[in-house]
Amino acid sequence: MSGDWAWQQADIIASDPSNLGSTFVPVILGSDKTTVSVGTGNNEYYPLYASIGNVRNNVRRAHRDAVCIIGFLAIPKTIKQYAARDDFRKFRRQLFHSSLAKILETLKPGMSQPEVACFGDGHYRRVIYGLGPYIADYEEQVLLACIVRNWCPRCLSPRGNLDEDSLCRCQEHTEALVNRTAPGVLWDEYGIVGALVPFTNDFPRADIHQLLSPDILHQLIKGGFKDHLVDWVEKYLKHIHGTSEAERIMDDIDRRISIAAPFAGLRRFPQGRGFKQWTGDDSKALMKVRSLEVPP
After folding, report:
1. Is residue 175, in this structure, part of any structural domain at all?
2. Total count of domains within the chain
3. What share of the chain is helix, strand, coil (3-state, %, to 5)?
4. What's 223-291 look like in SS3?
5. Which of 116, 172, 269, 292 is the most buried (most CB within 10 A)?
6. Which of 213, 209, 188 is nearest to 200 (CA)?
7. Quick one: 16 and 132 in the same domain?
8. What is the pTM of this model?
9. In terms of domain of life, where is this protein from (predicted)?
């Protein structure tokens, strides 16, 4: 999907004769608020990462500085009396977008007119920059897309029926709704927070709804496998067989996991899948083991 998007961006850039022969360089962004508790006293950090789309995967995965931290976003705080007020929540969310726009503004001239840059092979080329995919988990996507929690950041499906066919969100449609619709209707019927302005509005060819990319760790590995598949199977067994029989079946599943034969690249789980804190590596390793199990 990101490849199709890049071709579409290249077609738009090539429509200007002055840009012919230029290389499109999409700037990939990512952010995720985290808490560091080991030896630092539970300090909160909000790192902003950046990369470009013209790097091969073998370079990106070899830790050759293809991904780097370009800033730490502010985390505004206040006393409990004002923490839940609408004006403070609006200020906190808009500060996030304003900070991104300020950090990325040095790239703005190169998004309209070609700039000469030296590539890794030593050759100089004319490049056109553009905001590329923004990798974020759902909490970040809600903040980036300026939508109401539990709504989809990519389409207008109502949160009570996400399987319904509906139109995709886009910048032009959102701006038209904000200009002609009351804030209460925007919130209830479209899931849009009309008081916020996305940072992408300051840049050419940038639509935040098109740029959002799923976080593989949180939304696929931990979300799709652990939080959905594993938990769903456990709830299904309790619903069908009752708590006692479901626990017996889950114990049998743990036994099957624990006796998996050793193999290169396959991690063993002597205690089954019953551990408290799941990491991304735990989930990926357990996915391999579960795929090898033979159903009873």
Report:
1. no
2. 2
3. 45, 20, 35
4. HHHHHHHHHHHHHHHHHHHHHHHHHHHHHHHHHHHHCCCCECCECCCCCCCCCCCCCHHHHHHHHHHHH
5. 269
6. 209
7. yes
8. 0.77
9. Eukaryota
